[in-house]
Amino acid sequence: MPTHPKKKAATVRDVAKAASVGFATAARTLGGYGSVSPEVRGRVLLAAATLGYRPNRLARSMATGTSRTLGVVVADIENQFFARIVRGISDVARPAGFEVILVNSDEKANEERVAVRMLAEKQVDGIIVAPAAVNDFGHLSELQDSGLPIVLLDRNIPQLAADAVVIDGMNAAEEATDHLIALGHRRIAIVTDVLSETPIPRDFRPPASVATAGIRLAGFLKALHRAGLAVDELLVRRASPTIAGAYSEAGALMDLTSPPTAIFTTDNVMTLGAFEALQDREIRIPQDLSFFGFDDLDWTRIVHPPLSVVAQPVYELGATAAQTLLGRIEGRAGSAQVRVLPTQLVHRGSTRQVSNGHRRAKSINRVPVPPGEIRPQT
Amino acid sequence: MPTHPKKKAATVRDVAKAASVGFATAARTLGGYGSVSPEVRGRVLLAAATLGYRPNRLARSMATGTSRTLGVVVADIENQFFARIVRGISDVARPAGFEVILVNSDEKANEERVAVRMLAEKQVDGIIVAPAAVNDFGHLSELQDSGLPIVLLDRNIPQLAADAVVIDGMNAAEEATDHLIALGHRRIAIVTDVLSETPIPRDFRPPASVATAGIRLAGFLKALHRAGLAVDELLVRRASPTIAGAYSEAGALMDLTSPPTAIFTTDNVMTLGAFEALQDREIRIPQDLSFFGFDDLDWTRIVHPPLSVVAQPVYELGATAAQTLLGRIEGRAGSAQVRVLPTQLVHRGSTRQVSNGHRRAKSINRVPVPPGEIRPQT
DNA sequence: AACCTACGTCGGAGCGCTCCGATGAATCGG
DNA sequence: CCGATTCATCGGAGCGCTCCGACGTAGGTT
Q: Which fold has domain A64-167+315-341?
């Protein structure tokens, strides 16, 4: 038994010879196109079986110009958010006969640039990308110009005029914040990641950035503004996008002379890190602090207390992106569409009416709070 | 602006013409092989840049017979275990210039068979697979015969004589169980998944199956046996491999007339599901029940109490598999090697000395228990 | 009977690239 | 000064497949 039994795989030509039919006829039979009489078909199939013929999809792709492969670029497959998305993509792609090449960008525009180029060179039929930077997309529009279908995931880039599948992060953050406000909270903190380039405005302004974190931060600010609450810059924390980052920012928050009475986090990593920090400080939730997380992951149900979170349809995000991409690949025309998938607030036990004697904290669990009912505190 | 600006990408031929050099010379320059004089190289590169030349890797693969692509087949990318593994693989593969095609098998041998075939037809240079069934591997040995390097992940198949990267699940389970025994527990339950085909022996026997779950179950049984404890079949629960499955089995366990005083779970899904069930029943851990989980995921630190678990080097599992595969692809000869990566027990707060008056429960936290010190109970 | 249509069959021309063998110019030693 | 070696350059032959146009034979029409 040799180490390399590479016995040179049989090709269509070999099969044709073995079945004593023309080369093209064998090709048609095996490739499943054109027409071929039943007898001949049988002969060819038999020969193929005995020779152990396996088509070379690369050659096929070469000839057809279509690889039946999708490129997927996400920040980090270890992040459950992206893992679930990829699963959604994969579940749609495979039945349609597409394989998926997966690349992690770690939110680095440069990694993404390289990855996307490589994917294009590998002749993928389309690309799904959760863009790392919303202001650095030259590589993406380049692709687009070359006619490669591309679908944006989780983050839209309006200038790109590409299909996109997103959630309404602004509204989601706003609803969550409204809920906290309705519970009477006035000192509400947010733990978001540094990728939210939005400067903190005194008043609410539409988001300058369209990055996921920036949009959610904007929603948070908008809710505060609508309620007439001043923004305390100390309560807006931008963590490095890791559990450790969120951990330390949440810790810093509680070290404040005047700590917040509620914390909102903007993604599952921030949620985990912040929650761990609170846990380690033995801060009682919701008695001492209300907590509103983001992403309805399995573990949010089993911590104490179970976390109230913004639930987003993660799997569907991926599945929809894949469907959209397949549509484009099949030649669906029409201008780029942005699909906004619905989020919803999941109320578990981690928020409650603010305890320390705030006036006008009477409306409970009313979401969103009717404008004007909640008055500015200072 | 047309919808399909497919302006037909420039090829080596076009570049050669534009630079007025021979076709092969341009090819050598762009392909980075052979030799070419500096002036000519400059001309070619310039022409390539102005034409926006992008190599077609498919064509290159066709010509070289190597695709610089790896196939990876795991059960489910949504499972954090596999997500982390894939990250490990990817981190090793990409710097080496390999892309990764990812496929989910859902532990179904048939899905795996189809996937693996497709990957081979797509001419991947090698395959990493966490085999769904250890007794159904014809498709894998077929590949092997065709000379395609293949590395087994998480589960070995000795008959296959392929490289494999695994942990010593038997020993890990044994250590964890020993720990529980040392704490005086006599009624120790295990929640494992149905894929552990091992019949429950009265006494310990080496595992008939080499499936992951089967091995861990065997380790559990071995520890009981060594301690002279009889196996109560009611305490061996095989759940469907989902959170819900583990949830209901753990629940059933606590409904027993004589429930266990300790529970051991054999993977992260079982751990989550079982823990959730205990949580929902308001069973106090570790006061009412000791709990030992598997897989040191982030959330195990933030539940109450923090979970003691068997930690396995998940990322390294993937990275090592990739390194092994790359080695084979580069032609490293030698017989198949099985790499066993070390696990370790992480003690947090979820186990404690058994409370209800068992005799001889004096040795605490001694792991593993000295043979003979713990006597059979009945 | 002569004709047209339809369809199974066939070889060949690509797809874009790498690799091989050949060519010609330049460099070196005797 | 000429033969021998070196090296940039070149076209062509593949890699395995699909697709196109051509061919031949059968069936149906007038």
A: Rossmann fold (3.40.50)
Contact A286, A350 (CB under 8 A): yes
* Inter-chain CB proximity B58 and A61 less than 8 Å: yes
b (16+ CB within 10 A) / e for B34-68: eebeeebbebbbebbeebebbbbbbbebbeeeebb
Helices (H), B32-135: 38-51, 57-64, 80-93, 109-121
Task: Tell me which chain A residues have a C-beta less than 8 angstroms from the C-beta of B61.
Answer: 58
The whole-angstrom separation of Cα A297 and Cα A364 is 26
Q: How far is CA B273 from the centre of its chain?
A: 19
Protein residue minimizing CA–C1' distance to C16: B59
- Separation between Cα atoms, residue A24 and residue A30, nearest integer Å: 10
Task: List the B37 CA – D9 C1' distance (angstroms).
Answer: 10
Pick A147's closest partner by Cβ from B5, B102, B145.
B5
Please name which of B85, B197, B84 lies closest in space to residue B134, comparing C-alpha atoms: B197
By CA distance, what is B70's nearest residue in A?
Answer: A101
Q: Which residues of chain B does CATH 3.40.50.2300 include?
A: 66-167+315-341, 169-312
Domain range A12-55, CATH class? mainly alpha
Q: Å from A362 to nearest chain B CA?
A: 31
Domain B66-167+315-341 sits in CATH 3.40.50.720? no
Confidence of residue B22 (pLDDT cuts 50, 70, 90): confident
Q: Between these two residues, A326 and A364, which has the higher pLDDT value?
A: A326
The domain made up of B169-312 has a fold known as: Rossmann fold (3.40.50)
Taking a contact as any Cβ pair under 8 Å apart, which residues of chain A between 117 and 176 contact chain B?
Answer: 117-123, 145-147
pLDDT per residue over B319-349, tens digit each?
Answer: 999 999 999 999 888 899 999 999 999 999 8
Q: Where in chain A is the domain with CATH 3.40.50.2300?
A: 64-167+315-341, 169-312
Count other Cβ atoms within 10 Å, centred on residue A117: 14
Closest-CA residue of A relative to B119 is: A99
Residues A149-180: pLDDT tens digits? 999 999 999 898 899 999 999 999 999 999 99
- Going by their DSSP bridges, the two strands A163-167 and A150-153 should be labelled as parallel
